[in-house]
Predict the structure.
Amino acid sequence: FEHAGNLSGGNQQKMIVARELSRDTKVLIASQPTRGLDVGSIEYIHKRIVHARDEGDGVLIISSELDEILALADRILVMFKGRIVAEFGAGGRPANKNEIGLAMAGAAA
């Protein structure tokens, strides 16, 4: 075994995600889950998040990466200055990258 402190940043983050997802929980909250990671690590973490969702867990992803949100989310709430300013998907209006980006920047969506 290797000490976690000796692992690369991406492998440390994968280890933490794997540890947290191995627990019997019903809600996963992931804040900026792939920031600064390599493509392989991003794919691994995305697969684990999707698996948790498919197993029936509630998943809340907080991310400034629009492509990540579009790839993983069923429902998107956009916050600006501490307030929800737009909602997309899951019965609301369809997710549209341009409208979501405008809402993220504080423009009326």
Q: What stands out?
A: The chain has two domains: 1-64, 74-109. Residues 12 and 38 are 12 Å apart (CA to CA).
